[in-house]
Amino acid sequence: MTQDFSDDLNTPTEADLDSCYGSKYLSALEIGDRKIRTKIVRVRKVALQQQGGPTRTKFVLSFSNLDKELVLNSTNKNALVEVLGRRPANWLGAEVGIYAESTTFAGKPTKGLRLRVLRKPAAVANAPWPDEPGDPGPGFNEAAE
Q1: Cys bridge to 137: 10, 18, 89, 120, which one at CB 3.0-4.6 A?
Q2: Cβ(91)–Cβ(19) under 8 Å?
Q3: Does residue 131 contact residue 87 with C-beta atoms inside 8 Å?
C-alpha cells in the first residue's frame, strides 16, 4: 500500500525549525527583518562549547522584553564599549536596538545579530568611578556552573 504525497500548505518554516530545535539564545533567524527596542537587565559570563572546539567563556545579555538571551560577539561588545565603556555594570539599563544584518561567518554569507545603543542609562552619565580594565564592577553576575 502506498500513500500519495501532496504539498501541505502547513509545512513548517525555517523559523519553526529553529523554535523547535533551536538554541536557548537569540538568533538572527528569530529576529528576521524586525528591529527590537529593549533594555539590558543582566550581564553574565557563561562557558560555552564552541562548534567543534573547546569551551570558551562569553558574555551573555538578558533583556527586559525578550525571553531569550544574546551571546555577545566581538562586534556587539565593541559597540557597547564604544558608547557605554568597559565596565559591564554600566551597561545595565541601557536601551538598545537589536536587528539582523548580512555578514560572513567562516567565509560564508549569513545573518548576524547587531546591537545599537539607543540611550545610555542614567548611571553611566553619573558614574562615581572611572572604568578600570579587568574590573567588571558591582552588579556583574557570573553564571553558576
Answers
A1: 89
A2: no
A3: yes
Mean pLDDT of 121-138: 53
Residue with cell 509545512: 11
Residue found by looking up cell 523554535 in the block: 19
User: Cα 55–56–57 angle (5° rounding)?
Assistant: 130
Q: How far apart are the C-alpha atoms of 77 and 91, rounded to whole Å? A: 11
What residue spans define the domains of the chain?
A: 24-127+138-142
Mean pLDDT value of segment 93-118: 93
Query: Contact, 72 vs 122, CB < 8 A?
Result: no
Question: Is 142's pLDDT higher than 80?
Answer: no
Task: Give the H/E segment covering residue 109.
Answer: strand 108-119
Residue in this structure with the C-alpha cell 565593541, named with its chain if needed:
78
Supply the mean pLDDT for the chain.
Answer: 81
Name, in order, each residue with C-beta under 8 angstroms of 57's C-beta and a sequence gap of 6 or more. Answer: 45, 46, 47, 48
Q: Enter the C-alpha cell of residue 33.
A: 527583518
Q: Beta 70-71 vs 55-63: how paired, if at all?
A: antiparallel
Strands 141-142 and 36-49: parallel
